[in-house]
Write a structure and sequence with these properties.
CATH topology of the largest domain in chain A: Rossmann fold
Oligomer: heterodimer
Order of helices and strands of chain A: EHEHEHEHEHEHHHHH
CATH topology of the largest domain in chain B: Beta-Lactamase
CATH class of the largest domain in chain A: Alpha Beta
Shape of chain A: elongated
Number of strands of chain B: 17
Largest interface: A-B, 48 and 52 residues
Radius of gyration of chain B: 45 Å
Distance between the termini of chain A: 56 Å
Number of domains of chain A: 2
CATH architecture of the largest domain in chain A: 3-Layer(aba) Sandwich
């Protein structure tokens, strides 16, 4: 049984190159090509491919929009992104929108075949250089730190305002205290919590429900 | 006729003669002299008095011993009246009231007072006028101070605009001075109003004593109730810039004094008006410059987007197609040497694709358009973090996966990029934190490092230019830039821009 493929890309040259490359594999059949999201939707409904190879950056609707609409209409359909963008933000967005795989265009033919088979089986396929980004993206939660000694109410005020993106001077004005006082509150509370930076502080405040 | 008590013939001998001489003496005095009883009835009026006012039955003022008062007589002259005890008439309690004509002295004194208060008012007006650069405020101040010098009923300030149009900029409506907003300004052609036209063309004041006697008169500022009218030219940079018009309900009210005072104030105001006009022009120029700079930023951003797309979508895609061809060639070719050569070509192609990709992302990351600010920043900051030497932390709060207006996303991306570039280049920092926080109709982008900090940034340095760029981007969106830094304490850069509806310009 052959796997029926729909190629979606706004570059005809690229589509034909890919078609020739895939046609060489007896297990694959390229059943159609589309250049826009609209075309993709109507062709997918008409041709019932197994896997759609989908570009992201297309004029008009992006591939990410297209996958949402495809999956809404044809939930069984597998969508493998084939894109120039080696960007983790794009990867996350693509998977969140319903993509089954994420492949970059300079992947070699064996990898393309491997990816197609993987998504057809129902697995998630991500190009091997990308998961590193995925991992660090999730920013493995650090153990919430217990304060070495409890914060004073004033320090909690300052913590909260710092976490909301206020500068020292803005906090000083808000609490009608001097900047020096705010600086010393800040140093003290960071010391007590074992924090070293603004982002850590925001994360801490968030975890403790202080925001 | 004198009362019987003081009839000269009433005395006897020496006393009578003495009394006679005394009354003759009073008659000769160039003063008013009255001898009065305590009840105010007049016993004697001297000749000066009689000649001017006849002989009254009682004193026209209330006499009081040892007092001095002013009496304004029916002829309009003012007398200073002193009351002395009068003895020798054989009647107790009589007083002698002597009145000195002080009319001239009083006039001189009043004139001096007026001159002084005019000078004061002019000086205060000058001070007040130089306090503001806003044209409408200057003109309103002018009317306010003029009101202290000339008791007009209504007034207005008009300025000469382009093409001999005249616009009313401020009015005194009888109660207060109202500066007019552009939409409220009455406008007319100078040539449609002869008096205004004359003032503007000749630079001289015009007094119309009775507007009712002037056929076809209408108040140029549209305010009713002008029976007499005074228009005074207002100069700026040596030419007539406008006029102010005063009106009064009574006819023939304005005299030479009024004209003189109004002209004096006008000349005091000229520098202030001039400054205000210059300031207005400067403000307009600044606004034009800001618009241009916003436009420039947009154009630049569009250009970058286009070039990035060209590189990424066109050039790189063509290379990918080429690569597919090479892959086919690799598979189909028999010779080992050729396969190795094709593999090399594939590597070269990859390298070119890679560099195009990086170039495009540096110009404008596609994720900024396709996914959003948070993803684009994460990507950018990761690339900074992997260059080593700097721990980069990033957090975005309150975005909830929603997109911000495109202009805001672009601006904040560039702000963070610029600020982080400064940190990498100049701060000698070990860490930099980037925080994006959306709340209460605002988005804050904050970049905080632990570097060497600064007090002043050298003019012309790239760091200064970076900060200028950040400020421009923030201000173009109606936002603010806050920089907090001190040597050894690191630097915090916060940009806050208003952002009500995330979908407003999408």
């Amino acid at each position: 049984m052959t796997t029926r493929i729909l190629i979606v890309d706004d570059h005809p040259v690229l589509r034909s190159g890919l078609r020739v490359l895939l046609a060489a594999d007896p297990g694959l059949e390229v059943v159609g090509e589309a250049g826009t999201g609209e075309e993709t939707l109507s062709l997918a409904e008409e041709l019932h491919p197994d896997v759609v190879l989908l570009d992201i950056g297309m004029p008009g609707e992006s591939g990410i929009e297209t996958v949402r609409r495809l999956k809404a209409k044809l939930p069984e359909l597998k969508v493998l992104f084939l894109t120039m963008h080696e960007e983790e933000g794009m990867l996350l967005e693509a998977l969140a929108a319903g993509g089954d795989g994420y492949l970059i265009k300079r992947a070699d033919e064996p990898e393309i075949l491997q990816a197609i088979r993987a998504v057809q089986r129902g697995d998630l396929y991500v190009h091997p250089t990308m998961p590193r980004a995925l991992l660090s993206q999730s920013e493995l939660p650090e153990q919430p730190k217990e304060p070495i000694e409890p914060l004073t109410p004033r320090e909690i005020d300052v913590l909260r305002l710092l976490a909301k993106g206020n500068t020292n001077r803005q906090i000083a004005e808000r609490l009608t205290l001097s900047i020096r006082t705010i600086e010393s509150h800040r140093a003290n509370l960071m010391g007590k919590l074992g924090l070293t930076s603004r982002v850590e502080l925001v994360t801490y405040a968030e975890e403790r429900g202080l925001l | 006729m004198a009362p019987p008590l003081l009839q000269p013939e009433d005395g006897q001998g020496e006393v009578a003669a003495e009394r006679q001489r005394y009354f003759s003496l009073l008659d000769e005095l160039p003063l008013l002299a009255l001898v009065c009883a305590p009840d105010g009835s007049v016993h004697f009026a001297n000749r000066t008095f009689r000649e001017r006012f006849g002989t009254p039955a009682s004193a026209p003022w209330v006499p009081g011993l040892g007092e001095r008062r002013e009496w304004v007589a029916a002829d309009g002259r003012t007398y200073q009246v002193d009351t002395h005890p009068f003895s020798g008439a054989g009647v107790a309690g009589l007083t002698l009231d002597l009145g000195l004509d002080i009319t001239e002295r009083k006039r001189a004194h009043e004139a001096e007072q007026r001159a002084r208060s005019t000078a004061d008012a002019l000086r205060e007006a000058t001070v007040a006028l130089t306090r503001s650069l806003d044209r409408e405020t200057v003109l309103a101040t002018l009317l306010d101070h003029l009101r202290r010098l000339v008791l007009f009923d209504r007034a207005s300030v008009m300025l000469l605009e382009e093409a001999w149009r005249v616009s009313v900029r401020a009015v005194f409506d009888g109660n207060r001075v109202v500066p007019l907003a552009p939409a409220e300004r009455r406008e007319f052609l100078a040539s449609d109003h002869p008096a205004v036209h004359k003032i503007l063309t000749t630079g001289t004041s015009v007094v119309i004593p009775d507007t009712g006697a002037l056929p076809g008169w209408s108040p140029p500022d549209g305010q009713p109730g002008a029976s007499s009218w005074l228009g005074v030219p207002l100069f700026a940079r040596g030419t007539v810039a406008g006029l102010f018009a005063l009106s009064k309900q009574e006819v023939r009210y304005f005299n030479d004094d009024h004209v003189r005072v109004a002209e004096a104030l006008s000349s005091q105001a000229s520098v202030a008006v001039e400054n205000a006009i210059l300031f207005e022009q400067m403000q307009a120029a600044t606004e034009r410059m800001q618009t241009l700079s916003r436009r420039l930023v947009e154009v630049q951003e569009n250009e970058r987007r286009t070039v990035a797309r060209e590189l990424h979508d066109e050039a790189a895609q063509a290379l990918v197609s080429l690569r597919y061809g090479l892959q086919l060639l690799e598979r189909e070719t028999g010779g080992e040497g050729v396969a190795a050569r094709v593999a090399e070509l594939k590597q070269t192609t990859d390298a070119v694709i890679d560099s195009l990709h990086r170039l495009a992302a540096a110009l404008r990351p596609a994720s900024l358009d396709l996914v959003g600010l948070e993803a684009a920043l994460r990507q950018y900051l990761r690339s900074i973090g992997t260059q080593g030497g700097l721990t980069v932390r990033f957090k975005a709060r309150g975005l909830n996966g929603e997109r911000l207006p495109a202009a805001v996303e672009t601006a904040l991306y560039r702000v963070v990029q610029e600020a982080v570039t400064n940190v990498v280049r100049h701060a000698a920092a070990t860490r930099v934190d980037v925080l994006i926080e959306r709340r209460d109709g605002h988005v804050v982008a904050m970049v905080e490092d632990d570097g060497k900090g600064f007090v002043h940034v050298a003019a012309g340095s790239t760091e200064r230019l970076g900060l200028l760029g950040i400020r421009e981007r923030a201000e173009a969106l109606g936002g603010t830039l806050t920089i907090e830094s001190s040597p050894g304490e690191g630097t915090t850069i916060a940009v806050e821009v208003p952002c009500d509806d995330p979908h407003s310009d999408r």
